[in-house]
Structure formats: structure tokens, C-alpha cells
Amino acid sequence: MQPPRTDLAPPKDDPFTVEQLKQYDGSDSSKPIYVAIKGTVFDVTRKADTYGKGKSYNLFAGKDASRALGMSSLKEEDAVSDYSTLSEADMKTLNDWFDFFSKRYNVVGKVIDLPPQGGRSQSATSSNPAAL
């Protein structure tokens, strides 16, 4: 496992739509490769050998695939942003991945139009700490 980085840039909160994020899936070598977890967009370009087109974790590139990360799944049907039905153990795995990415990749923005989690508005739950 790679060690945490000490040279990360300050996090950005540039807005990305789901459609815009798709442009950063590793299929165009002139663009960076982005992976989103729980709506936070990470620049994983320096690991193009892992996340680039045709590589082992390309499934996660250009989208928020939080559910698949939480489930440790490489199935296309699991590569969606809705993680509301994850078990407690899978939720811990997802949070561990979020922490891992946060310590190793630059945060370049937030996905602003993800579908609601399990039918609930994400903004409603995130603005109400009691709901979390």
C-alpha cells in the first residue's frame, strides 16, 4: 500500500456534474483521471497505470462508484453513487477508502448533481447532523 503523501494541494471544491465527470474516465490521455467517492472528486492521474483505460480499476474512473468501493466490487452494476444500502461493514470499507484517497490524491471538486441516496436528498441529510 502506498504511504500517505505530504505534497498534496489544498482541497478544491470546483463543481462537477455527473456528465462532466464522465470526461475524466481515462479514455483521453490529454485529460486527467478523476474518481469520486461520496461526492468528493479525487485526481488519480498519477496512478494512470491503475485507473487508466483498460487498467484494473478503470471501472471507478469518471464517476462516483461509492457503492462498488464499499462492497470491494469490480462489477459494473455496483459502480454507482448510491451507498445507502451498504451494510455497516461495507460502510466502514467505503469510509476507509475515502480516508485512503484523501491522504494520497488531490481533491479537485465535488459532484453537484448526484442522485439522492436511497431516495433521500443528500443535501437534506448532510445539513441535518441528527439524520446521519
Structural class: alpha+beta
Proportion of residues in β-strands: 5-15%
Helix and strand succession? EHEEHHHEH
Total strands: the figure is: 4
* Biggest sheet details: 4 strands, mixed
**Strands in their spatial order, largest beta sheet:** 1-4-3-2
| Rg from alpha-carbon coordinates | 14 Å
Give the helix proportion (percent range): 25-40%
Distance between the termini: 30 Å
Unreliable sequence segments: 121-132
Let me know the average pLDDT. Answer: 89
Shape: globular
What's the helix count? 5
How does this structure look, described?
With about 130 residues, the protein is α+β, with helices and mostly antiparallel strands. It contains 5 helices and 4 strands; from the N terminus they run βαββαααβα. The protein has helices at about 20, 50, 65-70, 90-105, 120-125, and strands spanning about 15, 35, 40-45, 105-110. A 4-stranded mixed beta sheet has the order 1-4-3-2. β2 and β3 (about 40-45) form a beta hairpin. The longest helix is centred in the C-terminal third of the chain and has 17 residues, at about 90-105. The protein starts with 13 loop residues before the first strand and ends in a 6-residue tail after the last helix. Residues about 120-130 have low confidence and may be disordered.
